[in-house]
Amino acid sequence: ELRTPLASIIGFSELLLKRDFDATTARELLDIVHRQAGHLSALVTQVLELARLESGGPAVLQIGPQRIEAILGEALNTVAPLGQNARIALALEPDLPPVAADPHKLGAALAHVLNNSLVYSAPGTPVTVRAWRGPDAAVGTVLLRISDSGIGMSDEQQAAMFDAFYRAKPDARPESTGLGLAIFRETLQLHNAGVEVASTLGRGTDITLTLPAAAAPPHA
Q1: pLDDT reported for residue 218
Q2: CA dihedral in degrees (53, 56, 57, 59; nearest 10)?
């Protein structure tokens, strides 16, 4: 995975050094080098993040009581550069209990799912985020579901979707690192959170998280 963008950077930079190009062609080659360098930077960043989560365990998190709105705010800020946040519809049950979470890590993890939902569904179609109380009040959970009406996944794709470097359609998104959902899964495991995936080819995907509610503060 690291070799592909690196080979492009080396190859096109060597061309620029060895041959004289007109200004337009030179700029096109430099643009390719720049994009591949950005892809390489993102790949290295995500490789390091996944390694940090896998090796550091819960110690890498700063878990505390967090409002689900704050966590979603982190996620929405992360995907904002796509310019498609207007497509994201929030449907949150009122007065949800706080969840036990690291808002930055969990928000970043949710952003990977939102990013996929936005990219793999038709422009203008909504991506819905719902949150509601879990059915077992004694245990205390909050359920959060991200739904889209995009291309969906086969059973085979669903089985592999959380594997590092897996890309269901690599030709459709050459800039993808294939690490986002692996980071998402690892982050959920460190939060003791569950995840269920329901997807149908051509109809869309639902990803449902079960997040543990934060312990109630002690009574005075």
Answers
A1: 39
A2: -120
Residue 50: its pLDDT value, please? 76
Q: Under a CB-based contact definition with an 8 Å cutoff, are residues 88 and 126 in contact?
A: yes
Q: The domain at 64-212 falls in which architecture?
A: 2-Layer Sandwich (3.30)
Q: Which residue has the tokens 């982190």?
A: 74
> Which tokens go with 87?
């497509």
Residues of the chain with pLDDT under 70: 1-5, 39, 42, 46, 137-139, 168-177, 216-220
Do 1 and 39 meet the contact criterion of CB atoms below 8 Å apart? Answer: no
**Cα separations in angstroms, 140 against 96, 107, 186:** 11, 20, 22
Residue 157 near residue 168, CB atoms below 8 Å = yes
Q: Amino acid identity of 185?
A: R
Domain layout of the chain by residue ranges: 3-55, 64-212
Q: How many CA atoms lie less than 13 Å away from 130 in the CB half-sphere?
A: 11
Quickly tell me which residue has 């294939």 as its tokens.
Answer: 178
Work out the angle between the directed axes of helices 180-190 and 103-119 (0-180°, nearest 10).
140
**pTM given for the model:** 0.76
